[in-house]
Every structure is written in C-alpha cells, then in structure tokens.
Amino acid sequence: MTDLLYFEDFEPGQVFELGSLTVSRDEIIDFAAEFDPQPFHLDEEAGKASILGGLAASGWHTGAMVMRLLAENLLNKTSGRGSPGITRLQWKRPVHPGDCLTARVEILDTRDLRSKPDLGLVNIRVTARNQKGIEVLVWENPNLFARREVAR
User: Fold this and answer.
1) Where is the MaoC-like domain positioned along the sequence (predicted)?
2) CA-based diameter of the chain, in Å?
C-alpha cells in the first residue's frame, strides 16, 4: 500500500465517512446462531415479543458490521498498530433486517506516547445510523498509529 495515513495525519475534529451496508434477515440469524443465540436474534416472533420490536441483529453483529466498514474504509489505509480497547460502547437502537447502516469516524484527540516514541495515540468516536438517520451504535476507543518519524 502507498499513501498510508500516519499518526501525524490525524487532527481533532476530522471526520472520515466509512460508507454503508445493508443487513439481511439471513445474516442476522446466521450471526446470532453462531455467536449470540438469544431468541430475539433468531426468531421473528420472539423479536416481536421483546422490546426490540421484531427480529433484531445482535449488538455484537452491529459492531462487527461497523468494524468492517471501519477497517475497509480507514484502518487498512493507515499505519494502524491496533487498539488497547474500547472506552465506550452503546447500542442505541435495534438493527432490523433490511436496515442500511452508514458509519463515520470523528477524531476526538491525539497524543504523543513518551513510552513509545515511534507511535501516537488517536482517540476516535465511531457512529452508525440507519437509513432513517437514527443513531444505532456509538463507540469510542484509542488507536495506535505509527509515526512517520520517531518523536524526540
């Protein structure tokens, strides 16, 4: 890859649009059957009987779909070196079959790392909205990025 984004390329307030994807009924059920087999993720009637209002994607499935958009449309084009974890994760609204999720990233802040002068820390907020513009997911986390030049 060429033209990677490095730590120095990120500034607070920057926004990166990550694109969209649509989730199907079968994808919701397949993910749930393997990773989150709760009835309201597997069966329409159980979903209707729950507070979710119908068959709904697992929050973990929603996060995984948004992670795919983040990786394909930003992280894989950077000098990213991983993340030490997530500081905030909220599943704001259910995701139903046919929903089209659109995601974006906002850079919250950046920080030099004295202990690792070849890396910098970038705190991000990832949000996803459905086709109605309703926020369905928010997470915040720090990410490590290589620097072009080692900090002194």
Assistant:
1) 12-118
2) 61
